[in-house]
Amino acid sequence: MPGSGTRDSHGRSIGLIGAISIGIGGMVGGGIFAVLGVAAESAGGATPLAFLLAGGIAGLTAYSYTKLSVTHQSAGGTVAFVDSVFGVSDVTGSLNVVLWAGYIATTALYATAFGNYAASLLTGGSDSGTWLLRALILVGVALPWIINLTNAGLIARSEGVVVAVKMTILLVVVAAGVPTVSTQRLAVSTWPSPLGILGAGMLIFVAYEGFELIANSSADIVSPARNLPRAFGFSVGIVVILYLAISAVVVGSMSPEEIRNAADFALAQAASASLGRFGFVLVGLSAVLATFSAINATLFGSARLSYTLASEGELPDLLEKSTWNEPIGLHVTALLGLAIAIALPLDAISSLSSAIFLIVFAVVNLAGLKSVRSTMGRVVCAAGVLGCIGSLVVLVGRSTSDQPSAVIALVVMLVLALGSEHLLLKRRRLGG
């Protein structure tokens, strides 16, 4: 059976179920554990709607990824799409560097979530203190970094088991939590303004980042013309439904004050409402496992992305070298991710990560718009472009007042990416 390790006549080995698992595993990583409390604190009873709005943008973008993946089947994924459709230029090269910056930011996001949940387990949910949290964040980055140095595939080989454990625990929490949900806590009277709901949805948009990993596996997927659209559609659809259920249970079973007090580990606190201390520990351990696995996978992937970009002349030659048998990009990603995790609060990191992927996905939708020929397909891709840009504007506007540090970090990253890329390409044109 394709997807079980066997290969078809074209050497492809990933079937539909395997491709869907890649998409779900990419999305239900550390993101939902990291941003759920942030969303609930911002959107209140409208949190499920905020997740639905973010899922809608993800769904539109998944359509563009589907069309581009079928046409450009490559392990390069997003990088291959952008370079193939638009050609190599300062702008496209910068976008690829921004994508790497997105992985650095998500490393910081997962590390912060790891620290918060680990601290909640050690302290029983009470205030963990700044130094304990920072120490645990350091552990959350350092251990996966060491694993990548010694055995990069250690956690990757067990990723299927990790995904199954996460999904099982989340479904248990949802099933157990439904009886504790109060519809009054989800009532329209508890909702913020429409712009506030959209802003909250885009703040946690990073929770849907990950479905694009299907594109990186497109060259290995059996019957790609049939299975790629199904894989993108089913994976995004399943995760949207899961997030709606989880957010409804969390907001419906906790008061606004409880959400504020436990925003950094909201899912574990919500589990305790229905399952007691056992539920708190179960979800806490699951979150630690999920975020640890996500950090490991992100470090692994970003190291290879930076190496690829350097080999194509889009990053300095230094990043094409290796130390301790691993690309230097591994160490850069770990150090910068750790620095961001320690320097910025969770909601600022979430805002930064979401903004970066909205930028990247806007360009991917634009590539889809340029490539798709059918009228309906162009309408969907255009909606994806406008959705990402409009959402980015709302998110930046919200963050300018609430989390200006995230906007400053975003601007610095974009300026550095465009400036360095221009200098690198100029040097290549001059033969330097």
Kindly describe this structure.
This protein has one domain: Amino acid/polyamine transporter I, CATH 1.20.1740. 75% of the residues lie in helices and 1% in strands. The longest helix is centred in the last third of the chain and has 46 residues. It has 432 residues and is mostly helical. Helix 2 runs antiparallel to helix 8 and helix 3 crosses helix 8. The chain has a two-stranded antiparallel sheet with strand order 1-2.
Topology of this protein?
Layout: H1 16-27, H2 31-43, H3 47-71, H4 78-86, H5 90-123, H6 130-151, H7 159-177, H8 194-203, H9 213-216, H10 224-253, H11 256-261, H12 266-311, E1 322-323, E2 326-327, H13 328-343, H14 346-371, H15 375-402, H16 404-429
Antiparallel strand pairs: 1-2
Please summarize what this structure is.
The protein is built from 16 helices and 2 strands. The protein is mainly alpha-helical and 432 residues long. It has one domain (16-425): Amino acid/polyamine transporter I.
